[in-house]
């Protein structure tokens, strides 16, 4: 039983997923930002963050800030096994195509921000998040060396907390001076 003939998805997914279980393929799909990390011509972390923008906007539109915190904690905890399984399946340590740490943790940096009332903040928060993810201010750089998914997620968690503070500072400055 099974597919006979040429693989219809050949070239459209990493070869490491051939023969992988459904849960492994699902983890790689989630782990690569719904596949964006696999097809990005460059900067897979930036492209892979895009689902996080939609997630953050949805949180801002429909979820009170207290529940946003709970959902962010749950997404962070879910990102660890997703990244671990993705890394094992792709067989590459901290593979740049794995972007679950970017998109699943993205809403942390926007908790409570009025993204729907001030749409310019979507772009601003995106820029702040990407800059701080690249800079990896302490302790982000140090904790990225934790094993497997813990290291992949931990540095982004720290960077997202920094971004949350910067984004709230920018909102405060805008409200004060405008």
Task: Based on the model shown, name its key terms.
178 residues, mainly alpha, 64% helix, 0% strand, globular
Spell out the blueprint of helices and strands.
Blueprint: H1 22-31, H2 36-39, H3 44-48, H4 50-62, H5 65-90, H6 100-105, H7 120-135, H8 140-143, H9 148-177
Broad structural category: mainly alpha
Shape: globular
Contiguous helical run count: 9
Give the total of beta strands: 0
Percentage beta strand: under 5%
SSE order, as H and E? HHHHHHHHH
Number of domains: 1
Helix content: 55-70%
End-to-end CA span: 66 Å
Q: What's the main sheet like?
A: none
Q: Kindly report the average pLDDT value.
A: 90
The value of Rg in angstroms is 17 Å
Low-confidence stretches: none
How would you sum up this structure, described in words?
With 178 residues, this protein is mainly α. It has one domain. It has helices at residues 22-31, 36-39, 44-48, 50-62, 65-90, 100-105, 120-135, 140-143, 148-177. Helix 1 packs across helix 5 (65-90) and helix 7 crosses helix 9. It starts with 21 loop residues before the first helix and ends with a helix. The mean pLDDT is 90.
Brief characterization of the structure:
The protein has helices at 22-31, 36-39, 44-48, 50-62, 65-90, 100-105, 120-135, 140-143, 148-177. With 178 residues, the protein is an all-alpha fold.
